Amino acid sequence: MNYVIPKKFDLTETLDCGQAFRWSETDGVWSGVAYGKLLKITEKNDTMIMSCTKEDYEKIWHNYFDLDCDYEKIKSELSSMNKILAEAAEFAPGIRILRQEPWEALCSFIFSQNNNIKRIKKIVASFCENFGENLGCAYTFPTAERVSQLTEEDLAPIKCGFRAKYILSAANMVANGEIDLNSLFTMNLDEARNELIRIKGVGPKVADCVLLYGFHRTECFPLDVWMKRAMNVLFPENTPEDFGVNSGIAQQYIFHYSRMNPHLFEEK
DNA sequence: GCCCAGGTATAAA
DNA sequence: TTTATACATGGG
């Protein structure tokens, strides 16, 4: 069963730009799991073909791909602020910020610390295969409740190293209600950051990634070593806050642009 | 073997 | 308050 929509974004740019770690491409078809459902999606002419019902499209995927948000407008606003940012947005004009599940974003970016994207994907895949629900040809993301029952030894097979204890800390706090993830959608930004940082293994960078990708708090600008370097070289006159309520979207353009063109910001 | 990877906890200055 | 180091693992 398929559902077809007009092409509104670029699959590769959106699904392989370092914001999500569960999507993979085979012969032009992208496969991923979110909200407990497997989706296969591909482009044909000016349409996108999704392997889902109309109901699931409306209930899940329309929101997941942030299709109510006007990226052309945001892009033009950001582009008018800064010439380099305009270049970065034009380099990958089809990027969208996905609305991932909060718990998945939290785990993914805990796994991301001091790590590389290729291995993050491998760890997340193994995490799902070992502790998620089997959908037949894919696995769901493990629930916090399930993970909270595990030990560091149980997590050994996924080879996430020292991050295992951080994942368990997060799972326990979420499962026992010590942290209410849903409250972070509307909480004051600084309070939300402080809530997340209570979790062992979550610092300022991970917290902002979780808020941006898991809660769509687009005013967040996750700042790590890579982005600091990009900012210093490409945006010497700007601070992250200069990009306003769409800082997070600006950050995604900059991150992707820098990652695909490392020569642009090599330090001398 | 060495260095690095979408960082953070911890100890020490 | 800021700065240095360990941390698990795998790829270049």
Structure description:
With 268 residues, the protein is α+β, with helices and mostly antiparallel strands. A 5-stranded antiparallel β-sheet has the order 1-5-4-3-2. The longest helix is centred in the middle third of the chain and has 15 residues. The mean pLDDT is 97. It binds a DNA duplex (13 and 12 nucleotides) through helix 6, helix 11 and helix 12.
* Helical proportion, percent range: 40-55%
Largest sheet: 5 strands, antiparallel
The sequence of SSEs as H and E is EHEEEEHHHHHHHHHHHH
Identify the quaternary structure here: single chain
Q: By helix and strand content, what is the structural category?
A: alpha+beta
Shape: globular
Mind telling me the C-alpha Rg?
Answer: 18 Å
Mean of the pLDDT scores? 97
- The beta-strand count equals 5
Low-confidence stretches: none
List key phrases describing it.
five-stranded antiparallel sheet, 268 residues, DNA-binding, 5 strands, 13 helices, alpha+beta
Short description:
This protein has 13 helices and 5 strands. It is of the alpha+beta class.
